Amino acid sequence: MRPRHEPFIGSEALAAGQLSRHELRTYHRAIMPNVYIDKRVQPSLRQRTAGAWLWSRREAVIAGAAAAALHGSKWVDDDTPVELIWRNARAPHGVVTRDELLSSEEIQQRDGLFVTTPERTAFDIGRRGTVGQAVAGLDSLCAATDFKVRHVEELAGNHCRSRGLRQLEVALNLVDGGAQSPKETWLRMLLIASGFPKPRTQIPVPDADGFPRYFLDMGWEEIQLAVEYDGAQHWTDPRQYAHDVARQEHVAGLGWTVVRVVSQHRPGDVVRRVQNAWNALTLR
């Protein structure tokens, strides 16, 4: 028998005669109780999620960050715990079970698995962790699914005794699907917390023909001030750097002021630089 690269229930495979006990022990390893995979494979989050669902005897509903990843959210780490809504609380390592109220309208199938809908997933993500973590997760989920905040709020009305509703309310007021990374979410929240008006994200900058040529991370169109977060690739990739030079010249030629932020900048310095640029544009 060829080793299986996707998780499977060991006892089911043995009962069906699909492999022998020797083959199960020799070529596979358990990633959950009675759930196996090819021993050469380092399980991805998707594979661990499928394994956790199989461990639940296909009864649980996948929730939280694992559900968000199935819906297409980016920046979900492979070692993220798999959340399951299920009554069994004795979960193996890497799995979190929650005994919570869940209506049939809050469940759908995705890739053959039972998973919370985008709205229910947003409801769960927004109530947990820090506000910053919640907003980053919601931003990514919104970019992937375009869920509507009002639909999440309506769902929350059906779970008025759930924990974390106050944080959910705060997070939903800050969500923006235009964020392209958790660092952009962090930067936007820093600006809002420092008293700046909520910036628009992914601002189009037109070419001579009037069609968008570039998009600015965030900013305020009325004063043509943008703030952008530059990841390491902007400095280490020669092609990216050359693209950035041409982009910066084009944007500046249209009258935009751009404050560029990198990971080494301290929050206070970021706020000071943006404030200086704001004052220069609004007080002249």
Automatic annotation (TrEMBL):
Residues 213-263 form the DUF559 domain. Pfam families: DUF559. Gene3D superfamilies: VSR Endonuclease. InterPro entries: DUF559, Restrct_endonuc-II-like. This is DUF559 domain-containing protein. It comes from Mycobacterium cookii.
